[in-house]
Amino acid sequence: GRDDARGPDITPAFQSFNVVSPKYERDLLIADGQIDFPINPRNYGRARAYWDSIYRLWKPGSTAADFNLDSDYAKISQPGGNILPLRLLLSHKMVIFVSDDVHGSLFVPVVTNIFTACDAGVSVWVCGRSVIYGGENKPKLLICNGMAEWPRDQNNTARNFQYYFGAECYYYSGWSSFLYKSDRSAEDFIGTASLDTIHWPSMKVDTSRLRRYYIWDPDVAPFRADIGALPEVGYMVSTFGTEVLHLYKSKYGTQSLPDPIGISFDGRPVVHRYNRGFFRSAVSLFTPYAMDSSTADSNVVRMIRWMYEPFLYGQPGTAEFNFPTGAGAVSAEEARRIHWETPQGLDSPLGREF
After folding, report:
1. Whole-angstrom distance, CA of residue 280 vs CA of residue 278
2. What does the pLDDT look like over 142-188, one tens digit per residue?
3. pLDDT digits over 8-67, tens only?
4. pLDDT at residue 321 above 50?
5. Which region holds residue 274: left if phi is over 0, alpha if psi is between -120 and 50, else beta?
6. H/E/C letters for each residue in the chain?
7. Cα dist from 278 to 128, 272, 315, 325, whole Å
8. Helix 293-307 and helix 44-58: axis angle, to 10°?
9. Rounded Cα–Cα distance for residues 322 and 317 (Å)
10. For the chain, is the Cβ count within 10 Å smaller at the N or the C terminus?
């Protein structure tokens, strides 16, 4: 007879794994990631109404069945904790993560689910002030060359953020630390300078909207009509492959902000978009609430149209296989070839790129 105990086991080795099955039943999810008890927050009611109006501009004639604030506007801060379920993300084709607090946001607690949603083909636009870090009394270098300078960088969050969203470095002014310490205010963002004025017109802060769409504490963070600028808008260093759309426009121009900032943010990238193939992403270091609606609203709708890609192309994957320093790296020449040979523009079967 045969002793099977001495023979090889022909059963294949296996390991349990999760299957991601996106449904995309809904078009757009607004994920509100503002923390509790913030300084200078957005007006919650006006913010909700704003995104409802933007959806109607994007899809005229749409009804509550298409976009409903009860189901398509998610406030991450919940009584039971900070929640942004993966199931909710995967039920939408596109997600706009918005935050308007100068001390950071709830992006980091839910970032793993956001990365997973991107891997499943969900396009994500990160839109807000101090989305990941803020509130320091000096410029904060968040990410540089894949390394993070903040202690919460678990599971390569900074490295993955660079892969998914194309931001290599973030700088924030730490505006809140100047509220009592400087005769000259550090709130200086008055708009953007577009790099493509035909398709992406420049934007400027509307002081009446600045006052109405934000909550100003007269004792801590009073509204400064004489300044008329949005505080704590940072700038970023964009990675190869991103398309920078707007540059920072400072009230003080190239003049340095007060010490210890000591530099000017003027002319530095503040909005970019990133086509990863299987999904698309964008980063804006301010929300559009305070911007003149004559240009800002059209920019927002145009960004949504670009990001809402119904036809996925390219190969799905994760940062482990696609990050420039990973096992699946390609040369710069090959990356450029892939970029320029990807169907784009008016003749693209994917539709208008702008």
Report:
1. 7
2. 544 444 444 445 556 767 888 899 987 778 777 766 665 556 677 89
3. 666 667 666 666 566 668 999 999 988 766 778 889 999 999 999 999 999 999 998 999
4. no
5. beta
6. CCCHHHCCCCCCCCCCCCCCCCCCCEEEEEEECCCCCCCCCECHHHHHHHHHHHHHHHCCCCCCCCCCHHHHEEECEECCEECCCHHHHHCEEEEEEEEECCCCCCHHHHHHHHHHHHHCCCEEEEEEECCCCCCCCCCCCCEECCEECCCCCHHHHHHHHHHHHCEEEEECCCHHHHCCCCCCCCCCEEEEEECCCCCCCCCEECHHHHHHCECCECCCECCCCCCCCECCCCEEEECCCEEEEEEEEECCCCCCCCCCCCCCCCCCEEEEEEECCCCEEEEECCCHHHECHHHHHHHHHHHHHHHCCCCCCCCCCCHHHHCCCCCCCCCHHHHHHHHHHCCCCCCCCCCCCC
7. 24, 18, 6, 19
8. 60
9. 7
10. N
Q: Determine the pLDDT at residue 19.
A: 62
> Quick check: 245 and 306 in contact, CB under 8 A?
no
Confidence of residue 257 (pLDDT cuts 50, 70, 90): confident
| pLDDT of the residue at 146 | 41
pLDDT > 90: what percent of the chain? 41
Q: Which of 85, 39, 66 is nearest to 178 (CA)?
A: 39
